[in-house]
Amino acid sequence: MGDNVKEDLSSNRLGYGNFTGSTNVEFTFVGSVNENNLNAANFLSPEYPASQDLVRGIEDLVVATVGHHEEDIVSSADGARPRVDIITDIECPATLAYAEEGSACLHFVVEVPLTITNGPDEYVVKDVMKSRWLKATNIDGILYDAVKTVNDKTEFIGIGKPGI
């Protein structure tokens, strides 16, 4: 969905549906951390709190991107937390302002569980939320801000591609 498309789950254009249930939305992004020895293999280790900073930041991002008039349609699935499904070591692309091209970056694939109540089609909700999260992460820098709010000493030095 393009930036020019109004992404409002409760708009009449999308229409209300009778879909009620749980679904998972997957989105990807790039991040970089201060420590050169922090890589995909040890990111989820308990000795590195950055993984919990990220999960809590994603939870805050979910709340921030569901409009107040949509809270009765989309919410975090009860008791379910975002899950980092895949972490891959990559070289940082040239487009990142916070890391040198070729330095160590991590590529994340995250699955976020949602509950939809009397909303539009499940796939519409997934498309809208994924689009919002990608914009919030890659353009607005909101995920990084959320992680810094969770832990102002986080090992992350940047997430997404803010400002592009």
Q: How is the topology of this model organized?
A:
Elements: E1 19-33, H1 50-65, E2 74-76, E3 83-91, E4 104-119, H2 122-138, H3 142-150, E5 156-159
Antiparallel strand pairs: 1-4, 1-5, 2-4, 3-4
Helix pairs in contact: 1-3
Mean pLDDT: 77
The Rg value, from CA coordinates, equals: 16 Å
Q: Note the beta-strand portion.
A: 25-35%
Which secondary-structure class do the elements indicate? alpha+beta
Number of DSSP E strands: 5
Largest sheet: 5 strands, antiparallel
What are the secondary-structure elements, in order, as H or E?
Answer: EHEEEHHE
**Annotation field: number of helices:** 3
Calculate the terminal CA-CA distance, rounded to whole Å.
17 Å
Low-confidence region ranges: 1-15
Share of helical residues: 25-40%
Q: Outline, from the CA principal axes?
A: elongated
